[in-house]
Design goal:
Helix content is 77%, strand content 1%. By secondary structure, it is mainly alpha-helical. α13 (236-244) packs across α16 (277-295). The chain is globular.
């Protein structure tokens, strides 16, 4: 990841400063919570994608810095809201904002970050970017609600699962890369290819996230192993086990999702591994990663293109 970031190191540093500057508020609690979650770090893949995509299209400019901050603020807002909905207590190895300050402040500061993001979007002054970001933000909200309706539902299908992760996760990746292309002045066919790159990358990234929930290390991931199961989320490894596992394993997973229970976490992990559900999920992630890389084959060779291809590979080879 450090190699990937190096290609936009100077711009990335400027984006981090812009994020800090734009967290300013006359209400101290807003700044406190905003800094708390932003300073926790994370991969910052989404804003980085906006920068690298602009470079890959041959025109990385100051508008890309603002776009990257917009993407990060929207992502951070979703994290604040997610943790409240999921009653999460740990993120990136630290207590969540709602664990520190409570639910109401977390939700309201999430709202502040959303609105600050759209103030920044207005400052870019590109109607095509504003239109796409408005659509994507609305889709993310729909994805959150769809995921909520599926919590505790063991009959969720693989197609429904993919709809959730597309809406909730992948579209923001796609917005980052497509808007990066738009601001670089790319033609529509290239914008569409960059959108597809981001979409497939986001799907691959989420698929591996769902694998790590059953074979990851809590210290490396910064969250508790089994969190998704405790929230009753029917992720792909569980859906596959219900469909392909033995009757006993299927019944075990069915019960665990319905009851949102970690009581039999070790048995659930064993069942998921026994029927190769993790291998299946990784295989799909690898296919999405390959599709992402193929989407930008048309781009001229450059360090930026190389970084995008490397990111596609990193999405499926990470352990946190």
């Amino acid at each position: 990841m450090q190699q990937v970031r190096q290609v936009v190191a100077k711009e990335f540093e400027a984006v981090n400063q812009l994020i800090i500057d734009q967290l300013h508020s006359n209400v101290p609690l807003v700044e406190n919570i905003g800094h708390y979650i932003v300073d926790a770090g994370g991969k910052r893949m989404r804003p980085m994608l906006a920068l690298i995509s602009g470079g890959a299209c041959g025109n990385l400019n100051n508008h890309h810095l603002t776009l990257a901050a917009v993407i990060e603020f929207i992502h951070t807002a979703t994290l604040l809201h997610d943790d409240v909905v999921d009653i999460s207590s740990l993120r990136r190895g630290r207590p969540t904002a709602n664990a520190e300050w409570g639910n109401a402040p977390s939700v309201l500061v999430g709202d502040f970050l959303y609105t600050r993001a759209f103030q920044l979007l207005v400052s870019i002054g590109n109607m095509e970017v504003m239109t796409l970001m408005a659509e994507v933000t609305n889709t993310i909200a729909e994805g959150e609600v769809l995921q909520l309706t599926k919590a505790g539902d063991p009959d969720t299908t693989e197609a429904e699962y993919f709809q959730v992760i597309k809406n909730k996760t992948a579209v923001l990746f796609a917005a980052a890369t497509a808007c990066g292309a738009i601001l670089a002045g790319a033609k529509q066919t290239d914008i569409d290819r960059f959108y597809q790159y981001g979409l497939d990358l986001g799907l691959a990234f989420q698929l591996i996230d769902d694998v790590l929930d059953y074979e990851g290390n809590a210290a490396e991931m910064g969250k508790n192993v089994g969190d998704d199961l405790a929230e009753g989320k029917p992720t792909l490894p569980l859906i596959y086990t219900i469909k392909q596992g033995s009757k006993e394993d299927a019944a075990l997973i069915h019960s665990a999702i319905s009851n949102k229970s970690l009581d039999q976490l070790e048995d659930v992990v064993s069942a998921v591994q026994r029927c190769d559900a993790l291998t299946y999920t990784k295989q799909l992630a690898a296919e999405k990663s390959a599709a992402a890389a193929a989407s930008i084959n048309h781009c001229p060779d450059s360090p930026y293109k190389e970084s995008l291809i490397r990111l596609a590979h990193l999405a499926v080879s990470r352990n946190a």
